[in-house]
Predict the structure of 4Fe-4S ferredoxin-type domain-containing protein.
Amino acid sequence: MKTNEESTGTQGSEDDEGCGCGTESSDVDNGGCSCGCGGDYPDEFVVNNPSEPKTMADEDFIEKLEKYAHSIGITSIGYTKVPPELINEGNSILFPNAIVLTMEMDDDLIITDPGAEAQALNDAHYEKLGNMTYQIADYLRENGFAAESAHPYGGVVRFTPLAQEAGLGWVGQSGLLITPVSGPRQKVSAVFTSIENLPIKTDDEHSWITEYCNRCGKCIKACPENALIETETCCGGKETEFVEERCIGCSEGCTYCIEDCPFDEKDYTDIKNRFERMNAKLAQNKNKTT
Ligand code: SF4
Ligand code: SF4
């Protein structure tokens, strides 16, 4: 059995802007459906936005918000300003301040072969995270802040690169978000809010994954539809093109590219430590030969 999360929820896009000559990194364009496979998902709010919403939240409130989010089933929470280029064409958002949410996918979806059953499980995952997203938006409103939900199956923004911006993980060659907590298996949604002072992290601690992916490529081999295509760049590097029309993540609940990703089997920190040791050894060997 095999997949892709946000295609089942994620993928890079086929927009290819090239490597920019000068880098050797292979890179999926962090776009794609992610999943935003489409559809209009109006906010099913219960509470109205306050007419004069608060814009500043103290640490206690953020702590309470995170506790509430985890209590209803959210796995990870990150914060970012929304880069305008991540808003899909023809869409707009009420606030540039994003609370990005992930929900880990269950084994039942991962182990079910693509088809009607897997798709039903996939849809159920989206619905579950969508409902949690609405609940979190209402929680904000009840506490005096304005909020707008972005359903994980809707196409308002590109969720995986947004989650990367929020410091939750990194977009791998599969186009899937890879996080320390859930590897490549999560759905992503967001709530846009009037809170101007969200605790945004600015480091790129997961950026090493790009280099790791360059040496791995398992998701490309795992894809039964040739939706992930590795190409050479003009300066000798590698890029992965995601051909959205071929991907059956959204239509059949395929998850093969999740299942075969090393981050789905092994611990993030172990992989990172081993990768760093390997790089140190390679550097040592190189020094010996020069
Ligand atoms: S079709 Fe390929 S890219 Fe799409 S979910 Fe399946 S394995 Fe991943
Ligand atoms: S399978 Fe390998 S190349 Fe693909 S996303 Fe996972 S780590 Fe990266």
Remarks:
- The two ends are 46 Å apart (CA to CA).
- Residues 1-290 form one domain.
